[in-house]
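Note to self: keep these together.
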Amino acid sequence: MAIQESTPSALEACPTELGPHSHSSQMKHGQSNRIQNINTNNEKVQPLLKLDRISKLYPGVVALDKMQLTIMPGEVHILFGENGAGKSTLISTIAGAHQASSGDMYFAGEKVLLHSVQEARKLGISAVFQEFSLVPQLSIAENLFLGAEPLRAGLLDQTANLTAAKALLSKLGFELDAEQKVAYLSRAEQQMVEIAKAFRTEPKILILDEPTASLTEKESDRLFELVSQLKAKGVGIIYITHRMSEIRRIGDRITIMRDGKYISTLNVKDTSEDALLTLMTGRVIDKVFPKVAFHPTSTALSINNLSTKDNSLKKVSIEVKRGEIVGLAGLIGSGKSELLRACFGLEPLASGSVHFNGEEVTGFSPKQMLDRGFFYNSADRKNEGLAMNRSCRENITLASLTTQRFSLGLFLKRFKELKECKDLAKKLQLQPFNIEREVENFSGGNQQKVLLAKCLTRDVSLYVFDEPTVGVDVGTRTEIYQLIANLCESGAAVVLISSDLPEIIHLSHRAYVMYRGELKAELSGTNINEQMLLNHFFERECTL
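Structure:
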């Protein structure tokens, strides 16, 4: 069925207060969509988007099972659920990337069937997916207007394209060079480009899938300002996040999913965090962050006056002891990730020294560092951490195939590999439990579990976790935090690099703050709090 044109006036309507709206998964068809949203004139406000019993079937998998969702004009509607609950499949269906197996979708009251992302965009549905869709070889400007390039006399107008890109980035408040190639951007900067793409046109429905996962407080605040502006214009926003602070800050209503099914829709202001977690998981979660017993002993890693050739680090010195978790915090481009990447051999050094377990390892390769018990978990699981088109089993043991654990001369201990992979998948609660399934077919959170499993197949004395909970639900976060705590309490040294301040605050024994490639502060004890961290994030900017 072709797309039916909608009436523009219907899309400009903006509701006032949203009334209570809560449903159980046992309610009969139709009940879950009786929403009485009333404006100041006591007139019913027409939903921008309505999904009625949407199902999506794959061979052997029911990804969506009669899912319900209604989006009103001018609301931020949170989509909440564990990894693998079907959130990504649902928004991909709304955005035209996938087609539902059954069920109906209505846009501004008109039934539509979207065959592509392009059709959805013509309607005014724009999406920022968790997995980026950027072309690394092209510039930011070229990516922003890819497929919609300005023309002059039938030819691409590069000048106009660059001018429009600069204007868009300036309007959004993103400090990016429009001429820079995407290949040279950090993951956080690529995230900003993806967000900018969605704002290229005037969306009527905006889908944001974990948009702040790689952003710091400053960039996140700017995004929230943009969201508020869109709300005021009557835009409906579908927002996926696992961060409770974001839900409270910008959310109006929240729909909980579990195992591809609709569970409930609630007003954000009327529900508690514990209730949401119970609805999401089907079980009670006592606490998110574990209490970690720190027993620092000898120094595992010592970094002295380290500088990189690209000037991303400038004479940085820190140390990490066994039996402690050291947090690294800072804004995008602060150098927090580059510091440990340089130690691991991923960034070229200009000066300084690195000592690991008493041995100078300055300039050593990643393989040499691995062999010595230094394991770095990349923040970019798709491009650096995992071989997406290979199985979970192959990914889990990839970094350990040459060790005695799995190698027998020229042969691989297949039975040993299979047993360990199954044990780790069970320990990390991989869903679905299929270690032969290609990693790209798992949800983002389950891909993260595979990435973490890799470091558990070797003898490691220093674990570096770079943004370990990107795109991970609260239940899985709890499991990852407990894993990190267990590693620390077993006597290992742990470095936690994170843009999520609560992770730094609740898990770190000591914390370092980076600023523009320099070490800004070292904090410990009660000084590791949000105010102190943010003061050091922005202190230099405030004194200008």
